[in-house]
Design a protein that fits this description.
Blueprint lengths: L4 H23 L2 H17 L7 H20 L2 H4 L17 H9 L2 H12 L4 H8 L3 H22 L2
Helix pairs in contact: 1-2, 1-3, 1-6, 2-3, 5-8, 6-8, 7-8
């Protein structure tokens, strides 16, 4: 059964922030995050009748967002261009700008686990399943990411 336009709008309102934040954290680019956001929801609406629970829907959206970001980052065009640093200017309060910039400056593998854990509230097991990794790897990436973040924030002297 296909959703009505109003129901689709409600789904985007409900899940959109999560998809947007993850796409922005993974790409560090507002235009790229917008592209990922749009692609993820296009796929979501093509498969909307396959989801039975909100937990399944959330896991699928996270996995789809990560996959779309990987595809975007691996594109040949991306390897031959220099991205504009626009992500730091959007949607961040001035009080948190330094922390946000520090998180964005982390290597992608640490940025992803930090984002999923602290912004999306996923457990280590859920992150491991989402990233198709082991729990041990996620734990070590979280630990190393926190250490890098701590060092970066000491330099900033918040």
């Amino acid at each position: 059964m296909a959703l009505t336009q109003e129901q689709r709008t409600q789904q985007v309102q409900r899940w959109g922030d999560m998809v947007w934040r993850l796409a922005l954290a993974r790409t560090a680019s507002v235009p790229d995050a917008e592209d990922v956001f749009q692609d993820v929801f296009l796929q979501y609406f093509r498969h909307e009748d396959k989801f039975h629970t909100d937990e399944h829907r959330k896991a699928w959206l996270l996995r789809c967002t990560i996959n779309r970001c990987k595809t975007l980052m691996a594109s040949p065009w991306r390897r031959r261009t220099v991205p504009l640093d626009t992500a730091a200017e959007v949607g961040v309060e001035d009080d948190y700008r330094e922390v946000y910039n520090a998180v964005l400056s982390l290597p992608e593998k640490y940025r992803a686990v930090i984002h999923l854990h602290y912004f999306e509230g996923l457990s280590v097991a859920e992150i491991a399943a989402t990233l198709q990794s082991t729990e041990g790897t996620v734990k070590s990436q979280l630990s190393r990411g926190r250490a890098l973040l701590r060092d970066l924030l000491k330099e900033v002297e918040l």
